[in-house]
Amino acid sequence: xGPIETGVAGLVCLVLAILLQVPVGIAMTVVGAAxxxxxxxxxxxxxxxxxxxxxxxxxxxxxxxxxxxxxxxGFAGVAGLSADIYRVANAWIGHFRGxxxxxxxxxxAGFGAIAGSSIATAATMARIALPEMEKRRxxxxxxxxxxxxxxxxxxxxxxxxxxxxxxxxxxQFVIDLxxxxxxxxxxxxxxxxxxxxxxxxxxxxxxGNEPRRSFPExxxxxxxxxxxxxxxxxxxxxxxxxxxxxxEGAGVGLVLTLLFALMRRSMTGATFFAxxxxxxxxxxxxxxxxxxxxxxxxxxxxxxxxSEISGWIQGQGLPPLAVIFALVMMYIVLxxxxxxxxxxxxxxxxxxPIVAELGYDLVWWGIVNVMVIEIGMITPxxxxxxxxxxxxxxxxxxxxxxxxxxxxxIANIAALLLVLLFPQxxxxxxxxxx
Amino acid sequence: QSPVVIKFASAFAPTSINNQxxxxxxxxxxxxxxxxxxxxxxxxxxxxxxNPIAQLKLVEDGVVDIAEVVAAYTPGRFPELExxxxxxxxxxxxxxxxxxxxxxxxxxxxxxxxLELVGIAEVGPYYLHTSDPVRSxxxxxxxxxxxxxxxxxxxxxxxxxxxxxxxxxxxIAENISRGxxxxxxxxxxxxxxxxxxxxxxxxxxxxxxxxxxxxxxMNQAKYDSLPPEAKAAFDEFSGxxxxxxxxxxxxxxxxxxxxxxxxxPEHELVEFSEADVAAMEETLAPLVExxxxxxxxxxxYEEMIxxxxxxxxxx
Amino acid sequence: xxxxxxxxLLVLSILAIADIAGRELFGRPISGFSDATDLIIVVAxxxxxxxxxxxxxxxxxxxxxxxHWRLREGLDLLGHLLxxxxxxxxxxxxxxxxxxxxxxxxxxxxxxxxxWPVWAAATTLFTICVPxxxxxxxxxxxxxxxxTPVEDVARVRDPSATVL
Lengths: 434, 315, 164
Ligand code: NA
Ligand code: NA
Prior knowledge:
With 434 residues, chain A is an all-alpha fold. Chain A has helices spanning 3-19, 24-40, 43-58, 61-78, 81-93, 99-112, 118-135, 140-151, 153-156, 161-170, 174-202, 215-222, 226-241, 246-263, 269-303, 305-315, 320-337, 340-357, 362-376, 384-392, 398-421, 424-433. Chain A is built from 22 helices and no strands.
């Protein structure tokens, strides 16, 4: 068996192991190490990779920011900043037809500007917005669809943990990805709101009415927004304006969210420790995935498979946009049944050289990746955000949630198409600020 | 009989001058001389181990056989090499690199147990590049400068600047443009590679601030296992030949960068007055002292100057 | 463990603010602050692993397990055995690395603090992972051989705790 055949066999084994419930990071580590051993015959070198790659990740400053953003999101939830954003949005647009759903989308976007993950955003916002929408007789499918889809804004609007992982693996600046995501993120917000409006034109009974608030009442509610706005302005503003680095900004944000939680007395000893403990679980899991991907990377390189595949694709002389569309289609199909993040990390060694060779911007491709991953999180049969809502409210049937998601899925695909056809939507801002 | 395969890795970009010119030239020379007994596989761009800091460990563990190792990334591991970071000693990469090779062969450099040195480049000299105007030594005072190691840190502080550590070279430009630092010492050749020229427009080009070691160690066991014909070919081109080609190409890159900076009206090339340079030299002179006594019975600084003068005499 | 590690990270963040203030307002950052950062992030991240294993937080696609509960438990057991093996090798290799940096005298960039104590701490934390994971494996063996299905605890308990 030659190196390339071994590489193919390794990939098949990896997919099998993941389908057989082996945790993704562990599967990549074990199959990667075994494949490395088969190709080199050196047991000592193979074992050393476990040490080398663990050391590499533990010392990686860029990746360490994942810890800070995770804790920051956790503290922001405890501090009730998500509820604040929702209240403000509600005061201003709640009385429109479907206004509570739109306020939920804005709430997700606002919380997404503090937290780095989709699941945290979906779960946090669901606890706040779902009861309110139900009280106003919003249909369950609209509620669940809005929350599952709105939750994806947690990853698309910076800060974003997926973008940190991409930047570390592809050696791009995290800050460039964050800047590039701002306009696509806002575009998605607009498309989601449009999706709600169009849906309500087709099915006017899906949402009840909320009384219009008086102007003084609105101002009173807006005061609640000061906390989160302050944090977003200081942290993200500080990072984008160059007052401090991404890591420093995340540290500042962590301290600020903790202070808010303490000031509001919503932070008890128990919630403090619970937030740390639960974040620890996610942190270790993310580290393990990247350690595994890197060990698998040695095996892939030695199999010469990535270079053969990208060489073959370039040799076909296809138009660049066709290749890009084929890749995106592949990711969307993969995202239906596979863990989307693992899918991205695993395919980067194959895909990034192809995209770079076609002359596309790797920051732009990172944003495309995040958008595709977010689509994977809400497509059947396996959509993590959908399971989050289901986990909080087991009485809502999965079919109802997936039905509610359909309009948002269309909105997501429309936004993705625009970013694919007009890369400037993503690349303009980082280029302008460089 | 199938050839011995040697994995030659570099975590740096495939477009770097080392990966583009020098390493391929070395591979071609060795493979031709070895008459089919050796095949050297080149893995640039970090495809076999992306972390520049881990390269030494990868060689020691036999994951790769030869790698491009920046000595400053593992402080304390090659203690004597830090002496090349002293200012006002060398005026080119070739001179500093051959001096380092001489000292290695005289067994004045430690940390090479189980490693065979294939070649070494003492990249430099480093010059100061800043975004704020610097036209005299007084302007350096108060600037925030990125430093790549303890010697550069001491140098920055002696000149009244604020030393900021922990910024890897590829992120210098980003941090200058965001104002986290105001400038950095860097060799001229890498001013464009690291996009420092995009943000730093002032370049002090007559105050050499030391050289930094980039070396190519080989796994000793792998070297020892080479069949005689392969080893002979390898020995012919490792050491002086490879070091010289490495350093000459890097100096060529230095000259090209300098020419580009000179042509570009956006950039200001600054030369301090002779009196100012002399005063700086005096200010920085105490930095030498620790190296005189670091090793018992050896004045490493004197040894370096002697080796350098020997190199100068032959050129 | 995790709590201590992440609390250290919190202290680091507060120091970062002092460092930024010192740098931007007084032109005097905390000397060697970047060295401290480099050391603390290692321990903070390593400290998360034992808690994560005790927590059973990991991404796994639980597809095949929908067929039959004993198949599910058997596959989970397999996954956890592999995890035990991986963590054992990591702990061992980190010990080797610690001895290596101690012998070669590696230090931090600016303050020249020896780095081996940090790696000794990281090695200890990964070594703790081994018995923690062993306990999980024993639990999964019990679940696998149990005559009746044990309730599936590995489902997402509190989704806010997971990421992505
Ligand atoms: Na976010
Ligand atoms: Na999906």
